[in-house]
C-alpha cells in the first residue's frame, strides 16, 4: 500500500508521560477525534483491529466454535437469543450449542471505554457462549476457552492476569476477570508472591493465623472506661449497622479489618449498605447511642468475620463511646451468629494457601469468564424443569487494542508486536522522485509481498527526517530504507525491536530478514 493513500490527519499532540500512548495513537493516525474526547478508528487503527480479530478467529476456530451475529442494537442479548433457540427446540442440527460466538459493537447505555489520556471509544466486543446439560461438560469447555484466550493475549504480547471475581447473582457459579496490567488501571487486584493465586481485592481471601482458643470463657461485662483507658486493638471488635433493603444486619469485624460490602452483598444475595448513625433507630428499633448487647433482637441478621470466630474474651467499645464490653465470645453471646469472610484483605496478608504474601497491583478489565446455572421448564407435557449450564466468555477488542499500545510504547514511540502491527514492512525511499530509488522500492515491494509480507511504501515527497518520524509513529516491525546505493541494488534494514541495522543487496533481502526476525524472537 502507498502511504499517500492512508487517511492520516495532520494532528500535533503534545506527548507527556501520562498520556504518551493515547497521544501517539492520535498523532500516528490510528485514532481520529470526531467530537471532543470521542474517537473513531482510522485506517491504520482498523488494520490493527483486523489483525487482532484474525488472531481471535484463529484461536476460536481451533475450538470448533462457530460465529453468529446479532444487530448492533441488540448485540448484548446473545445469550437470551440462543437460549430461546434451545428451549423452543428450534435447532435442526443439535439439542445443544457447544461453542458459538459473535464479534460486534455494543451500544447499551451509550457505553464507551475510557482510556488514560481521555480517549473514549465505542466497544467492539467478543462474546462467546457454550451451553451444556452437565456441569462437568461446562468445566471442560470453560478450561478450553481459558486456554484459547491465553493464546490470544500471548500472541498480542499483552501482560495480563486472570483473577477471581465475586459472583453477582445466584445463577453465577464462577467468575474470572481478565485484567491488562497497568499502573493507571482502576481495578485493584492482589496476587501471591508464591504460587498462582490472584483475585480482585474485593474477592480476595487470606490465610488466618488465628487458631481455635481453649481459653475459659469469662462473663460478659459492660464497663465505664477510666480516663486515658485504651482497648487492646489486637483482640477488639467493631460492630457495623447494615441493611439489605429494610432488613437489619449487625456485623462484627476485628478492629483492624475493613468492611467489605461486596462480600456481604454476595452472602445476602441482595445489595447491602451501611446505615447512617441517625437512621439506626429506623431499622433496628434502638438509637445508635443507646445500642447494647441486651437489645440485640433474634429477628436481626447477625454476621461476623471468620477472623473473629476463634477468638475468645474480646473487647468492644460501645457506639456511644461512654462504655465498653469485655469478654465477648460471639458463639456464646450470640447463638444465631453466622460466620463468613466479610472483610478486605490487606497487602502483606498470607495468601490462602499460606505459602506466600499478597501483593497489590492495578489493571484494566478487558474481559471476563463466567459460569452460570439456570433452570428452565421443559417443553413436554410433564412441565418438568431442567438445569442448563452456561459459559460466557467475553473479551473487549477495543480495550485490547488500547492496552497493547499502552504496554508497548517507549521513549515517544509505539512498538507494535509483530502479529498486530498494521504492516510487516515499511519501505522508506529517501527520494521517491529519484528513478533508481523508485524502481528499487517497487521491486522490493513486489518481492516481499510475494513472500507473504504486508508492505507499506512511503511514496510522499517529504524529507527523510519527516518520513522517519512518521515511520516511528506507525511503528512497523521492520523498516527498509532505500537511498543513494539504490543504483547498486543495496537497501538498509532496520529491525525496530532490536534496533539492528544491516545493509544488504536486494537479492539477499528476504533471507537476511528471515534470519534477523528469527534472532529477535
TrEMBL record:
<dbReference type="InterPro" id="IPR036621">
    <property type="entry name" value="Anticodon-bd_dom_sf"/>
</dbReference>
<keyword id="KW-0067">ATP-binding</keyword>
<dbReference type="Pfam" id="PF03129">
    <property type="entry name" value="HGTP_anticodon"/>
</dbReference>
<feature type="domain" description="Anticodon-binding">
    <location>
        <begin position="427"/>
        <end position="513"/>
    </location>
</feature>
<dbReference type="InterPro" id="IPR044140">
    <property type="entry name" value="ProRS_anticodon_short"/>
</dbReference>
<keyword id="KW-0030">Aminoacyl-tRNA synthetase</keyword>
<keyword id="KW-0547">Nucleotide-binding</keyword>
<dbReference type="InterPro" id="IPR004154">
    <property type="entry name" value="Anticodon-bd"/>
</dbReference>
<dbReference type="InterPro" id="IPR036754">
    <property type="entry name" value="YbaK/aa-tRNA-synt-asso_dom_sf"/>
</dbReference>
<keyword id="KW-0963">Cytoplasm</keyword>
<dbReference type="InterPro" id="IPR050062">
    <property type="entry name" value="Pro-tRNA_synthetase"/>
</dbReference>
<keyword id="KW-0436">Ligase</keyword>
<protein>
    <submittedName>
        <fullName>His/Gly/Thr/Pro-type tRNA ligase C-terminal domain-containing protein</fullName>
    </submittedName>
</protein>
<dbReference type="GO" id="GO:0016874">
    <property type="term" value="F:ligase activity"/>
</dbReference>
<dbReference type="InterPro" id="IPR045864">
    <property type="entry name" value="aa-tRNA-synth_II/BPL/LPL"/>
</dbReference>
